[in-house]
Design a protein that fits this description.
The chain is of the alpha+beta class and about 290 residues long. It has one domain: RlpA-like domain (Barwin-like endoglucanases, Beta Barrel). It contains 8 helices and 12 strands. The strands form 4 sheets. A 6-stranded mixed beta barrel has the order 3-11-6-10-9-12. A two-stranded antiparallel ribbon has the order 1-2. The protein has a two-stranded antiparallel ribbon with strand order 4-5. Strand 7 and strand 8 form a beta hairpin. The N terminus and C terminus are likely disordered.
Length: about 290
Amino acid sequence: MKKPWTLAMALLLVTSFFSFQSASLFAQSTPFLVSPNWKQASLTHTVFRGSNHHYDIALFTAGENGISDDLLSTAGGREHGLVPWKYKIVATVFWVGEQAAEGNPVPNTESAWDPSWVAHFGGEDNPIARTNFMPASFTPRQNPFYVALPYNDVDDHHTKSEAAQVIPWFNDSFVRDGQSVCKGRWVAIRHGKRTCYAQWEDVGPFQIDHWQYVFGNERPRPNANCDAGIDISPAVRDYLGMSGMDVCDWKFVSAYEVPGGPWRLYGDNDTMTHLRRQTALEIPGK
């Protein structure tokens, strides 16, 4: 008969072996585990091959197209949580249907990604006549909580070549050449003690190519509006209690991080709101 301590040691060895095997299998089957040395790992990005619209996956290395290793720490394949807050960014107010004026030479009757923005929204998002963060005269068809940021991933109906390298969610969201992966993305906006959530629906202010700020760690480029780096809708302004030109912090968040609030009540451009409406229509008695 074996001694009790011998049996206990054998049992411990067997348990340790199976624990090690399980951990190995888990690591092999879990794609979202990130190595501590991820900056040394190879990244892949979509390569655009010209007018034939053929896409390949190619290795991407730091320094390509002038993109530094520091910028890659917050852009190009990184997860949402690694894109930090942008602090003390001047915000200006804009709205769907805003007409051209001396300080706003380009009307907002269409967005960078939607030539029929007013029609799809349901009308002009009047910044004065409002009820519960919405225009008083109609119920918007899209989320009234929206922003513009100074980068467009589409140029002349084609996806820009650097987009795959600098947009953190590109590989998960890319569908086809010329279809924006930025439109509709969620951002958190903080002013004082309040935070609201909005969707990226247009490009501006002033710039259309400043990815080093939007996805990296540069500050907004100098401009006539106190170096503004984000445009906010009247609903965002009202919820946060901001003035026409004020300072806020903002960052990208995933749709799953967005809590309930007035930004979840309206708009078929919010996937979760759309699914909730569909579910309600399918349930008898709803």
